[in-house]
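User: Continuing from earlier, I have the next pair ready.

Assistant: Great, send them over.

User: Here they are, in order.

Assistant: Folding the first of the pair now:
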Amino acid sequence: MTSRRTYHHGDLRQAVLTAALDVIATEGPGALSLRDLARRAGVSHAAPAHHFKDRTGLLTAIATEGYTLLAEALADAPDLRERGVGYVRFAVGHPAHFQVMFQPELLRGDDPELLTARERASAELRAGVSGLDSAPGSGSRSATDPRTAGIAAWSLAHGFATLLLTRNFEGEDGPLGDRDPAEAFRTLAGMLF
């Protein structure tokens, strides 16, 4: 008796996303193949297309999930500095999402779910900047353009997270030494904001 392989998987969409995140974390987004992901999930090579259509759809789903997770990581932060810490912690905790989210050439930029998730994360970042002028001791910052301040804050958090993920801070003699990255970021943000 021969058994025929049928399409049946409890949560194929999540299984493919999880496998894709593993591949991205170890090999980068360029190594993704729907056929390989289907093999890892134990389904036919065409099965992932039912959920993602193609590789770009899969990467767009990963970025959408990433922006949603980022918005959640920022939502409870009381001020701009802590939003930056949340940003860095998100990047460290979700390096594969982080890699994909900021490579627009990999994504469907007009995807409604992506646009919604990206806007939610952006709103959380802007909320941190809006508190700058009202912060105690803000003094001369009252004339700060919120958009420019937002770019500066995002650049600091994103740059720090990127340098951290690409292992530019490693080693005893590295700029962080044995300091916790979140504490190091708080110090840097305090110097500038």
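And the other member of the pair:
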Amino acid sequence: MLTVLAPLVLLLNGLAAGVMLGTLLGGFPYFAVLPVDRYVHAHAFMGQRYDPAMPLCLLGTIVLDAVLAFEAQQAGARALFAAAGLIAAITPVIALTKNAPVNRWMRTLDPDHLPDDFKDPRRQWGAWNSVRSWLTIAALVLNCAALGFLL
């Protein structure tokens, strides 16, 4: 079972970490330099492109890490899979409580007719996106280290 689940957790976590790294290196820096109306349009477009793939990758990572934490024979692997799963579990919490509400709101806005009280969410959204990105990447590092115990 470990020979199937360990590569699968690396695949799912790696896909999620790759997308998150992409937002750190290109997505958010691009958003940050756009005029507000273009940012609203771009954010609404990009915000809907990652569902349902990202949630499935993250939830799969969490579930597989939990299973691997119980199934691995080596204590080091068990500890690292458990830590990776816990860290990975923080990512969807941040996404659901901090980033997704902004994403949903942005999809409702007309970039050509922004509300008078529009508050640009880029700084706060970007900060939370950075935190969840680094957590997802950290989980991948821990999963890779755990795999080392199994080889």
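Worth noting for the second one:
The CA atoms of residues 90 and 132 lie 8 Å apart. The two ends are 14 Å apart (CA to CA).
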